[in-house]
Model the fold of this input.
Amino acid sequence: MRLRDNNIILNTLRNSERVVDSIQTIPVGYIEVRLSTQGKVGAPEVVHVRNFKVSDIVELAMSSESEIPARLISILNNMIYEDVDVGDWHEKEVEELMLYIFKTFYKNKLEDIPYPLSPEDYKILEQTPKRLEDVKTKKWVPRTCIDISKDVEIYDLPEDFTSKIKITNKRTGFYCIFDYIHYKDQLVIKNWLDTYYAEEEAKFKGIKSKIQFNWNIINQLKSDTDNTELVDKLIHYDPEEEKAYNDYLAERLKTLSEVAKIISIVNYNGEDISNLTVGEKYELLKDEARLDYGMIAKLNTKQQSMRFGIKPEVSMLNPISGKVVKQAFPFRLSVILQAMQLSGSDDYDDRDDA
Done:
């Protein structure tokens, strides 16, 4: 029989008491969620969360795609019983939580999902020209269903997993430590970019509006090719102005890619910069020659090997071939939110047995 240290026994009992006490204080209507990241990334190991209120769903439904992240962070923070900031989580953790909420409070299936067609599917459709034409003109959109319990899998996290990545130049010894991108970082980056390029945004506001208007007309023409009135509405603009605008977009995209990597640096060759703002990090590191392609390429390779959260490939019925296949499906938050808005809950019955 193995003897146990009395201190270990005492500490274990105290921890167990704390767990029981915390469970007893959780209000009715909250469910326990244990995310697969086990507290090793951004989210705690365990949280308790309630369902969305009607006002929450309406607020998100009325939000533009760019507004959703900020509003979703605020709403989820209020829905979770513990004092947490979902903005500090990785986006994959937010997706996993949302899928768990959908499965528990709404339905076990994601239904009526547009199916992504492959070249092989189009070859099958060529045998039925009418159906192929319907697909091209979007008169028929092939759809499928995903059973969350059976078809969706979660990565198992290795015991030694850490979200931090240290990349070192073996020749010079220069190194940086990178951490994961927080869910709210995309908001921080966008707001910073809007401020940084405010002058350019104002300068190109007119041409941006004209280009967007023309794109909307072109998209309408795809399904109404003979509509000459739409063609007449196309706006003509100065090619030089368009080139200048495209050059600006290229520069902004380059800055975005640089900032996306810089913001994740928490240690710069021994200097702790985890508390610096996006702007401060960018000004400090934008001209750092040692942050070269080799270091970023190594970081990208390492990040791609760090698999956690929902597996991207899901089993689903191919509506063209009639076979169950493994298909990549992005569990974007917008997809889950739309499913919540469109589906009712399986928990309620409207039969009048009174």
User: Anything to note?
Assistant: The chain has 15 helices and ten strands. The beta strands are 31-34, 46-49, 109-114, 143-147, 165-168, 175-178, 265-268, 271-272, 313-317, 324-328. The CA atoms of residues 5 and 11 lie 10 Å apart.
